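check this one:
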Amino acid sequence: MPSVSGRTIYFGRSDRANKYMDQVFHAKKTTEEAINFLEREELKKGSQANFISQCLILTRRSFVNMYRDLGYYWSARGSLLMFTASFLTIMAIGGFPSFVEDMKVFQRERLNGHYQSAAFVVGNTVSSTPFLLVISLIPELITYYLVGLQQGCAQFIYFALTLLACMMLVESLMLIVASIMPNFLMGLITGAGIQGLMILSGGFRLPHDLPLVFWRYPLYYIAFHRYAYQGLFKNEFEGLTFPNGQVLQGGGPAYIKGEEILRIIWQVEMRYRSGWILPCYLQW
């Protein structure tokens, strides 16, 4: 039995067509009556959940989502490590005005022959290292054990040394920018732009997803964030196991090793311990 538009609305025996149509139109009529009743019904009284109830419900829902998402455990660790290294380094541009003042004094004294450039670099590095150590160590002590990273002493020392090396690298970078561009505003923009490019190519995008021109060759290999991220990842994930989310989809082992996450998810180069390149990079 076709309709006016040509679509089939009943395909069966002819003696049962009337019974079928009665059931269909009766159900449709009943449904329309229920909808009309709900539209006419007015809520005489109602209340909205208070602020505390809203917070509790949203907290419970978020907790359930995190508990069910098995990839959240290793994903959260990776996000924390990247955020820590990126935030400390990008905020180091705040010391740029002092670098500009130091460069003005250095240029005047260097022209007068009081000392050589190497002596200025060594003295500036030695004097700034204790302050950089304090700046990097305080958030490390608060964050590292609070979020439940690996409890080993060697892992913590490696974590601290990597962040200290990152801070020293950024200080050196901003000193170079100050020697080229003495303007405060342009220097801050230039320093932040250079670090932004390094963050994008060093870990914000996975290595296999980077375009070959400029982003991978040569920026990926120049960016010190790449060595910091991969070193922190290997320092944290090696030796750990995590629940495998593929089990819920009907396949895969119950647990996944940290080495597999490093190799497959984060695309970390496993040939060497990336973080130990940072001190050599700093000397270069």
Remarks:
- The chain has a mean pLDDT of 77.
- The radius of gyration is 31 Å.
- Residues 70-283 form one domain.
- The first strand starts at residue 213 and ends at 214.
